[in-house]
Predict the 3D structure of the following.
Amino acid sequence: MEVNFTNEGAVIFTDDCFDLKNTFDCGQCFRWDMDADGSYRGTVRGRRAHILSRNGCAVIEGCGEEEFYTVWKDYLDLDSDYNSIRMEITELCPQLACAVESIDGIRILRQEPWEALCSFIISQNNNIPRIKGIVSRLCEGFGDNIDGVFSFPPPDRIARLNEEDLAPLRSGFRARYIIDAARKVFSGEVDLDGMREAPLNECRKELMSIVGVGAKVAECTLLYGLHRLEAFPIDVWMKKALSTTFSGITVDSLGRYAGIAQQYIFHYSRLLAAQGSDKA
DNA sequence: GCCCAGGTATAAA
DNA sequence: TTTATACATGGG
C-alpha cells in the first residue's frame, strides 16, 4: 500500500484491491452515496469525505496526513491485504474460486459498533435506498450538527427517547427495536466494545438479547461493526446459497475469513439469480 | 395495485 | 425444531 499526499491536500493511495462501488455499495454501510461521476461522498465518525478513483488510485479529497492516519487508514482497513485474503479463501475452499472472482475490490470497513448495530436493525426486511433514508433522518434528527455534518446519534441519546419520538424516521416496526438496542447498549447490558475480543458465541447471545436482533443482524454487527472477520459461519441464512450453488461446503471450511467469504458467496448467488432471470 | 426488501417475533404444526 | 404470517414503509 502506497500513500502520497499532494499539495492540494488530497491523499492518494494505491491498492489493487479497493473498488469504490463494490466497497461502498455492497450493503455493508449506509452513509455513502455515489455522485454522477462515480465518486463517493460519505459521513464517517462525524466527518464528511469525498473519495474518487483516478488512474487506479483512490483519492480522498482535502485529506491531510493527520486525518488520513487517524481516521481513514483505520476505517478503510488499509493495513489488510485483501488479495492475500482472497487467495487464502480460495485455498481453503477451492469451490469458492468462482465466487471470489465474481467481484473484486471489496474491503470490510471498520464502522463503529453502535452505528452498525443500529443500521442493521433498520435493514431488516428493508431495501437499501430506504435504509439510507431512515439512517439519514436518524442522524439529522438526533445526531450532533457540526458545521452541517450530522454525527450518528450515540446510544445514550436514543435510550431516552420513546417510539413516538422516532416517528419522523418512518422506520415502521423497527422503532421499538432501535430503542431497545440503545437502552441495552447504554446500560452496559450489551457491551459492544467488549465484543472485539470476547468469544463469538457470547457476543451473539448478548446481541440477540436485543428485541429485533436475530442471527443475521448479530452477524452483520460482528462483521461490519467489530471487524470480526471470522463471523458469519452461520448456516442460518447462508444455507440457501450454499446448498443451491455450493453443495458440499461446510461453514467450518470457510476458516477465519468466513465473513468475507460470505460476501463473495452472497454476491455470486445474486449474480447467478440475475443471469437466470435474464434468460427467463 | 402488486411484489419485494441480505429479518424477526410469534404462534402453530 | 421446523414452517407459516404479520410487520411498517416505500422502491421498482
